Amino acid sequence: MREVLSAALSYPDTSLKMGVGGPAELLFIVEHDGAISNLRAIAPDSLCSRMLCRAAQEKFSRWIPAEANGRPVRQLQCLLFYFHPAAGKVYFIGEKMPDFYSFHSIDDFLALQPDDLYKYKIRTTAETLPFKVQAQQIPEAARNARVNAQVNIRFYVNQHGVLEKTEALNDPGYGMAEAAIAYGQQFKYWIPDCLYDTCMGFSKERVVQFRGDSAGLAASDHVFEANDFPGWQSKGVVDEIYIPENERPILKKNVLRIKLTVEKDGKVSNPQLSGTADSLFYKYALQYLDSYQNRWAPYYYCDIKVRTGYLRYLYYDPLAQKCYVLDRDPEKFPPPDLERVYRPEETDVPPRHQFGDYALRNLHRNIWEYPEAARAAGIEGTVRMFVVIRPNGSVNAEIDRGLAGVCDQLALRIVRDENFKFTPAYKNGYPVSCRIEVEIPFFMDK
After folding, report:
1. Whole domain around residue 245: which residue ranges?
2. Distance between CA 257 and CA 271 in Å, rounded?
């Protein structure tokens, strides 16, 4: 299908000259006999829609119908495209189920008028566009030294899907950082993360690997420390250990350091415990190690399994009466109150929308219709919510000042939408829960 469609797609000259572009959906029903009907396109403009419909009618108007219980049935199909004005090409992304169809029947789809097609939520995910990649070049100095190394590079892509900058996050030497940047500069055009007609810039990381001696690396017994890998980032709390309520008052503030090695087959070896913890705390540390004995995955360095060293810290907070497993030293980086929900001004790094302020301002566009019940009653105003952004970036929302039942429910759905994602707030290097205020306006003339 990709080959047939790629040959049939052409960017309308007028649309290209005007810089019109973005995601598009082609929807149709495959009938019992394999013919297509109710062909409709949601595209950046009418010329793009007409081109997609013409390509569908000419190139793939016959299908093998779907079957249920041995009989052919009708089925709604959805194909996703992207019109990239900077590259001057139309790309076929693939097949998907339209979000509308998840909640409505085919009859509802047939009843839609062309002007109502915006009810479909076209969604793309940030990815690079297909092109012929030039082979990665290994610097001569690295080749002669038979060096194995990884370079993490980060792409910065604007909302139009054009690469603006590539940077190396680490430099192993031998000219490998420069070679990795040169390799990454080839990925010039991308499909940005889009929600209907709002596309957002983003940054994305990729690992570039230089293998000068694969056989030597596979045979090596060297232990690679997980904290030293490029791109490693502290998660703060990795796990939590349950302690019976009757034993919690007995424990005081304890810190126990656990150093262990995960072998190439995933087994744990050489666990070493150190610290000034009492014997009761040691018991829980041993129970933790025993429960996780077969749950560690070996690390891949340059696509080869290697031995990996991990550091974990068991920390008991007598105030919260909780025992945390941390990935950083609590004596050097004392954890804050991990159970508390902070205000943005109380954190070292406040929460931030993953695609920046531009996405947050445009988040509400075309996600919902004004509720008919509220429109009929003449209800207008603003719904204010408290949104808690958890340490993993997920959100929880509750209404602080409501407007009407339908508006409140709609505002909660918008906040809980998949595009409402944040990077968490940080306090002393630990991700913490943070509460922000979000207002959703409901005005009939806007």
Report:
1. 218-326
2. 10
